[in-house]
Amino acid sequence: MATLIDGKRLAQLENDKTARRVTALRASGITPGLAVILVGDDPASQVYVRSKQRKARELGIYSVQTTLPTTAQQAEVAAVIDAYNHDERIHAILVQSPLPAHLDEQALVAMIDPAKDVDGFHPLNVGKLYNHLPGHYPVACTPRGIITMLDTLNFEYAGARAVIVGRSILVGRPLQALLVNRNATVTMIGRRTKAAAALMKTADLLVVAAGQPQLVTAAMVKPGAVVIDVGINRLADGHLVGDVDFAAVEPLAQAITPVPGGVGPMTIASLMTQTVDLAEWSQTDA
User: Fold this and answer.
1) Which of 72, 120, 232, 262 is the most exposed place for a label (fewest CB within 10 A)?
2) Which residues belong to the active site?
């Protein structure tokens, strides 16, 4: 039976450390500040934003939100970003994705001050990550949370074969860079990958972020693999499941994340940690 990677417990430990860091910063006269920009009325985005804001306030982080209507134009969103870029109370800026289709999300992300890019999506920060440059810069929060999980397992990155299912800029691509930077051998699988199941079967570390419920079956998993399930899908009966058939894969795996209660809590915890990082770096890197 696999070790269950308890994201809720790990997130609580991470949040406890973050709270202590916030207390220390506030004692020195600095309150970490997080600004969230929400455009439109997507129900899932509203839930995510409320969760982020609530957690930030629980940890003592100064948290503000700007909500714009679905009809907001590029210039309106850009003006909000610019205001937060120049607001000394704000150390971290997040533009909640997805944006309405008429907006250029990449252009808006590129307008965020790279030193306040809490999601790690600014092209400058992405380039630093892929070039494995030294120094301080943020990275995408879900991959950061996954690395924290793997570190708690004392996962041996060097020489490990990692397979990532899904090539998004939110998870797959930044995680690829983080793993390569730790000397893993990484294969990425997309919709057009040939013999995908056979490739998955070679993985010492299998990370699945495809957005397809229970896509990965036991036949696709190498016995003893570490399996990280990033997906969260609601079935017709209301149940939440991941991209991995948990019941079938758990007996094979060395360790596995549940859904829910796995990667999700660690993503929000990593966002909070990175907000505090940016506040600290604003002082040390100034």
Assistant:
1) 232
2) 52, 96, 119
